[in-house]
Amino acid sequence: MTTRYAKIVLTLMLAAFAALVAFNNLTDYGSNFAFVKHVLSMDTTFPGNTAMYRAITTPWLWHGAYGLIIAGEALTAVLLARGALAMWRARLGTGRQFDAAKQVAIVGFTAGLLVWFFGFMVIGGEWFLMWQSHQWNGQEAAFKFYMALLGVLIFLNQAEADRD
Fold first, then answer.
1. Residues 6 or more apart whose Cβ sits within 8 Å of residue 77
2. pTM greater than 0.85
3. Residue 160 near residue 4, CB atoms below 8 Å
4. Predicted pLDDT at 163
5. Tens digit of pLDDT for each residue in 77-114?
6. Would you list the DSSP string of 62-127?
7. Distance of alpha carbon 87 from the chain centroid
8. What's phi and psi for 36, nearest 5 deg?
């Protein structure tokens, strides 16, 4: 039972994290909007870089991208919270029942990885060359977030001892 409770609590903690990130981005919109604007504009990348054709300098696209990020964070929070609730309800069931209850949380962890790994590391970091910016490089923070998600996802996917 200890392992089941750990899986539920860790999932809830990451749901709370994603919810707070989305809440902060909504209630202090301008702070992280500046980050999105500069990353997409590529205005602090190395001078003369030949990938500047990738830059997005249209304000409504900055807002759209930021909206997608916030929506992804909120979706992650909701799915993780629902997954934790499903696991809580199945905590006294068989291993098969508890494993089946993990499915929504697994989707939630995947949504979080889409935001913080694919969105920030792949798209922001490599496509928009965020790594070249000393001021607007969010890769270290994103790494911490997606590694926490990945670590719990791996733990969560361990089959229950009484699975058979």
1. 15, 16, 18, 19, 22, 108
2. yes
3. yes
4. 58
5. 999 999 999 999 999 999 899 999 999 999 999 999 99
6. HHHHHHHHHHHHHHHHHHHHHHHHHHHHHTTS-HHHHHHHTHHHHHHHHHHHIIIIIIIIIIIIII
7. 21
8. -60, -45
Structure tokens that stand for 151 in this block:
């670590």
Task: Count Cα atoms within 13 angstroms, Cβ side, for 142.
Answer: 22
Number of H helices, E strands in the chain: 6, 0
Q: Provide the residue count of the chain.
A: 164
CA distance 125 to 131: 5
Token pair, residue 30, equals 């301008």
Tokens of 104: 């929504």
Token pair recorded at residue 108: 């939630």
For residue 99, give every residue at least 6 positions away whose Cβ sits within 8 Å of its Cβ, in sequence order, or none.
Answer: 159, 160, 163
Residue at token pair 């990885």: 113
